[in-house]
Design goal:
The structure is a homodimer of 179-residue chains. The first copy, chain A, is 64% helix and 6% strand. Chain A has helices spanning 6-17, 22-31, 41-53, 77-88, 99-105, 112-140, 147-177; strands at 57-59, 73-75, 94-98. β3 (94-98) of chain A pairs antiparallel with β3 of chain B, so a sheet runs across the interface. Chain B binds a DNA duplex (30 and 30 nucleotides) through α2 and α3.
Chain lengths: 179, 179
DNA sequence: GTGCGATATATCACTTTGATATATATCATT
DNA sequence: AATGATATATATCAAAGTGATATATCGCAC
């Protein structure tokens, strides 16, 4: 596997659940894991190509009836080993870039109304996302007996816990700015 | 300014507080804002060069007594306007990549001990960082009358609020995994 | 039948990272 | 005063990732 390519692990992880096309992988990244990870076509397709060369994934016999191309990928034994090695590796980088906080930190050059507005924008987005996370949580609680769902549930709980913390901060921050 | 270069705003923000060298900028990124932003020399130096060409920053007359090179940058009027325009722009991208959560989501392919270990590693780091954040908070509370410090304080409060949420999640997650 | 959104792969310019190279300054130890 | 370690300081590069765009087909509503 490439030295520093995180997208490889995301792809391997998703393929460990089921066979997928590049497009399917993008859809799953944008739904299930979007609260803590991002990924674009521009990294997915080249990665799939190189991972195939490296023997981490392989093309499944495609049941193409028509002329439309569609490549369904499957994880290999080597790919599964790579995924497990990564899971057992102690180092994990949590890379956070909050543009909202940059705007807080540098807000002093403008009127306080600007900072207030920026907190309001952040709060609105957080409320919307939190609503969605709670909806996921409720649905997951119906199927929590299955192993895979427990792991999904853990990430949703993480989202809820942090998003509620964001809202508490919004309240405190607003109060501070308004004296 | 370059279309999509966030580092420009970080540099302009820091220079709005005081004149700095590229090396100083890196130090400030690694200390004051490291909890919510990162930046490397490989982006800082090229950005400074292009921003100088674009008239956003300028070299201050350097008081070089010896032969050692040292370039001190200063924000220009245009640079200040660019910073203010960004602060007033409603869109802000908060880009989060938690490798720890990826390992939670894909943890199902390994024994639960692996997931437990990964939560423990995360928790240990969070406890250390939280201690530091609380230390910053105490020190800041002594100088909160000054404008700039209020904005710094807001970001520290954010860090404390979210890191405490991380710890609550660790407890819940651990309990869930152990049934 | 035609317009539109979803499916599907691919590529590219630009941004950022993380590592490395180069050189000087400062300071403690020998 | 020589040595070595650490901090200061700028610069560059391969590799990774983003966001946009190009291309084409499929399925469905009107």
């Amino acid at each position: 596997m490439a030295k520093d390519r995180k997208i490889d692990l995301v792809i391997l992880g998703l393929l460990s659940h089921e066979d997928l096309t590049g497009y399917d992988i993008k859809k799953q990244i944008d739904s299930a894991i979007s609260f803590f990870w991002k990924g674009s076509f521009g990294s997915i397709y080249p990665a799939l190509g190189e991972m195939e060369k490296g023997g981490l994934v392989k093309r499944r016999k495609s049941g193409n009836t028509g002329g439309r191309e569609k490549i369904i990928y499957q994880i290999t034994k080597t790919g599964m080993d790579t995924l497990k090695t990564w899971l057992n590796d102690e180092k994990a980088t949590n890379d956070l870039k909050y543009e909202t906080l940059l705007k807080m930190y540098f807000g002093g050059v403008e009127d306080r109304n600007v900072t207030i507005r920026n907190i309001e924008i952040f709060e609105k987005q957080v409320r919307e996302d939190l609503k969605l996370l709670k909806f996921y949580k409720e649905n997951l609680e119906k199927v929590l007996d299955q192993e895979t769902h427990v792991h999904y549930y853990l990430t949703v709980l993480f989202g809820i816990e942090t998003y509620e913390a964001y809202l508490r901060w919004c309240k405190k921050a607003m109060k501070m700015i308004l004296q």
